[in-house]
Task: inverse folding
């Protein structure tokens, strides 16, 4: 379920009057607007507020009735943001000044703090008293909303109680003196139609910038006041349900991933499918296909080895590290070139297939064949391990691995994707920020080897279980 799209659909229904029923007894929004205008005019006469600046835009766009962008339900009307609130900008920290080194009484709220219709309290910045004294008029209060107008444009939200009266960045504006339902306005400003208005009309300079004037002219579909409150109640109920779905989805995803890891762990310990005493033991098969094979007797392995199994090292059952570097200049333009960013972490799903012509590449690459295991030796914890679906060339951070006759490629793939192999590669990786698994260490990795017939049964069972888990 795409919960992000579902949230937007709910908001879209709300501003088109399709989320809650209309009540013909409600006072029309046009009457509310006339009352708001009258109150503003009176406050201007009394000198309590300043008269708004005249818009540079041609024509009066303050009130459209039903002649706005789309038809509205009975009792609704089109208006602009400046009709239902005042918009005031924030203030940058004075030149030569900076954030306080310690916590003070004054928080400076940045755009990066504005998340999920509120303010993230985890990484707040503070200013000293002298800085606050210079920008003390640019604060945001409990009844206000913020609107980001620079860099990241169009985020809207409330201010937590702890931050009432705190300073606001110049990259955001505060919506104050809100004459409609504050939460209705917050949700309306997050709809696709309003966000599209913002995105089409900002100035592209050093960073995107939405002017106060442009924000003021933003069209708002305004319902009657009582319907605004009903809409807010319905939205909050539905969004709470979506929050619950997201929590449950996250828990399900986590449980599924844990189950997948557990399945692989059971598989390489011989506990996923029963053993068959008639299977040719793995050690006998290894000796038969390679008379020179000498098993190691000091390999570390946790747990009892099932009957018919034997412990080997990766170098005994696969060719790892026997690669040659191919200069990119000698690769045809229509050949597939696989980079690490083309592989999704954990799932190892190929996100994109690009040819040499599709991307700018230089240097050297490894060649690989369809059916080889492609193992990312860089940051092995990302678990980018897969079987090549076709021939191609790959970054040298990926090692093509060829399984020998004693081991099925699909079984070896599961070993190399298992929690056991991840732990081993992490324990001997070199480098701190970008750890790599060295070739010698990889070749020494212990591979628990079942009889060939049991490998096939394990692969079949894992495929069956993974299909079920993925369907969840």
Result:
């Amino acid at each position: 379920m795409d919960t992000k799209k579902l949230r937007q659909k709910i908001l879209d229904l709300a501003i088109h009057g399709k989320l809650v029923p209309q009540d013909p007894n409600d006072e029309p929004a046009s009457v509310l607007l006339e009352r708001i205008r009258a109150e503003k005019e009176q406050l201007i006469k009394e000198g309590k507020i300043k008269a708004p600046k005249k818009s540079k835009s041609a024509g009066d766009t303050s009130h459209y009735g039903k002649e706005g962008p789309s038809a509205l339900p009975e009792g609704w009307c089109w208006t602009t943001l400046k009709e239902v609130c005042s918009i005031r900008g924030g203030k940058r920290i004075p030149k030569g000044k900076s954030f306080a080194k310690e916590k003070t009484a004054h928080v400076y709220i940045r755009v990066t703090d504005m998340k999920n219709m509120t303010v993230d309290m985890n990484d707040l910045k503070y200013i000293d008293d002298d800085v606050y004294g210079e920008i003390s008029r640019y604060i945001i209060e409990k009844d206000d909303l913020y609107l980001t107008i620079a860099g990241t444009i169009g985020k809207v939200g409330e201010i937590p109680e702890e931050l009432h009266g705190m300073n606001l960045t110049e990259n955001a504006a505060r919506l104050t003196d809100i004459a409609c339902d504050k939460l209705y306005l917050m949700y309306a400003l997050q709809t696709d139609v309003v966000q599209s208005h913002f995105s089409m009309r900002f100035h592209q300079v050093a960073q995107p910038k939405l002017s106060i004037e442009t924000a003021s002219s933003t069209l708002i579909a305004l319902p009657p006041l009582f319907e605004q409150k009903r809409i807010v109640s319905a939205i909050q109920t539905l969004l709470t349900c979506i929050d619950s779905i997201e929590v449950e989805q996250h828990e399900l995803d986590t449980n599924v991933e844990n189950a997948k890891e557990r399945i692989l762990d059971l598989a390489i310990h011989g506990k996923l499918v029963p053993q068959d005493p008639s299977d040719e033991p793995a050690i006998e098969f290894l000796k038969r296909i390679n008379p020179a094979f000498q098993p190691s007797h000091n390999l570390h392995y946790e747990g009892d080895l099932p009957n018919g199994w034997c412990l080997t090292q990766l170098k005994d059952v696969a060719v790892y590290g026997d690669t040659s570097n191919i200069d990119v200049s000698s690769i045809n333009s229509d050949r597939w070139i696989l980079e690490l960013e083309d592989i999704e972490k954990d799932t190892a799903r190929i996100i994109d297939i690009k040819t040499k012509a599709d991307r700018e590449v230089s240097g050297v690459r490894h060649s690989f064949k369809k059916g080889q295991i492609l193992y990312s030796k860089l940051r092995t914890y990302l678990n980018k391990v897969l079987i090549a679906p076709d021939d191609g060339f790959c970054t040298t951070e990926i090692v093509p691995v060829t399984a020998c006759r004693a081991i099925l490629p699909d079984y070896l793939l599961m070993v190399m994707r298992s929690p056991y192999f991840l732990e081993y590669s992490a324990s001997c990786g070199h480098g701190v920020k970008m750890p790599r698994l060295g070739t010698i260490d990889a070749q020494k990795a212990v591979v628990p080897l079942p009889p060939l017939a049991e490998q096939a049964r394990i692969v079949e069972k894992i495929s069956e279980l993974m299909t079920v888990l993925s369907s969840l």
